[in-house]
Endoglucanase
Amino acid sequence: MTMVKMKRIGVVLVLIMVVVVVSEAAAAARRHDYGDALTKSILFFEGQRSGKLPPSQRMTWRKDSGLRDGFHKSIGESQIGIRHIDLVGGYYDAGDNVKFNFPMAFTTTMLAWSVADFKPFMGTEHQHALEAIKWATDYFLKCTRMPGVVFAQVGEGFSDHNCWQRPEDMDTLRTPFAVSKKFPGSEVSAEMAAALAASSIVMRTSNRTYAARLLSRAKTVFDFANTYQGSYNATLGKWVCSFYCDYSGYQDELLWAATWLFRASKLPYYSNYVLNNIHKLDPPYNGGNFAEFGWDAKHAGIHILVSKLGFANHLQPNPFLINAEKFVCSVLPESPTPKSVSYSPGGLLFKAGGSNIQHSTAISFLLLVHARFTSGSKRTIQCGNVAVKPNRLAQVAKRQVDYILGDNPLNMSYMVGYGKKYPQRIHHRASSLPSINAYPRKLQCQGGTSYFFSSKPNPNILVGAVVGGPDINDRYSDSRADFPHSEPATYINAPLVGLLAFYKDH
């Protein structure tokens, strides 16, 4: 072979390689339809609705459920019970049929934060997001309308978890559980106040009267939570602690709620409350929880949000900004500082406990919020000897979103209904059982057992549901019985809404 021919072949090979690289880059650029994923992530909440469904219901295989919620004897107030209060509505938190108000309130706060910060990128999904928020806030207004009482839960978890039954067929105990002045529950009450305050912000442009009502109620509920301090673990632990026990204390929820109330009202009382009480999160203002954020611990969220709002900027040093960036550095893979997370070989962020993608979405949301704040303030984050620019935080967050949508070793989307390959046997009663349209007769408590153990895909597609996700080695078994990995939850989706809205336009 002559040197000329060899050179020509070399040129051709280089051109082929360039074409392949460009093609792969182009494919990567168009790989995910973030707009489609956003639509589906919000639609999921319609599948979780409890109560009388509206004519606009799009997930039509779901029907009315829980229409007698609140009309059973409650537990909590003086332990004698309250009867006949309308507690219809709200959301089932995951694959069961109980309304756990603590994680539901966090879900609502995060949905509202998603809209408050990312509304310009939501397009036509903005209205659907508001509807998802209002479905929760209408219910929370019911739960907080009795002075000195806040309802913390509807439904008895143990009897519910003993059944595999459609929500439309429920004959399990629908006991309402309340906290009160005598039997306080500051974490659930304060988180509800945060949800109401955050939601008031996003409702102002469409319904100022309703927004004002939400803010007024948020103030009242916060005052109740703060005046009568105590954890609902002490009174309702028997019923809540196998499901949503408060492990981080309630001071974080009080500070979190006050921060949202300041953002909603601009009243100095709430910023002063945060500044005067931050020491209660354990010296130096964070203890071992500076990097925790989710339905239980709000620490990292408080630091990120206060840094963004800027009312602590006069403090030198500013403990909120210090801890916000300490949190960021504990997440970034290249940071030399101690890590608060680990990563799977395929790149999924991990923390201890089940339903891991809840951590991926919540932490990624905070990274993106802080990236936009630091970009606006032209600030560089210093992680040890590594300088981190804001766009790096957005890249790390996007990597998590892309992993969830299918850029992973299994080439599998962990959002039901998105992409060509996604979980088929999710741990979800309504999805796994035939709909009333297909099977009008009532399914008794154990009537769905055979469907639970079936290897067939779920008959109803819970579009937009994001499951707990793979294990630390990127493996996923797609089994209903493997609930830490196959169960969706509202608090997984809520932060993802904001992330998807942003990446849809960026």
Observations:
- DSSP finds 18 helices and seven strands in the chain.
- The two ends are 50 Å apart (CA to CA).
- Strands lie at 99-100, 149-154, 176-180, 342-343, 349-350, 381-383, 386-388.
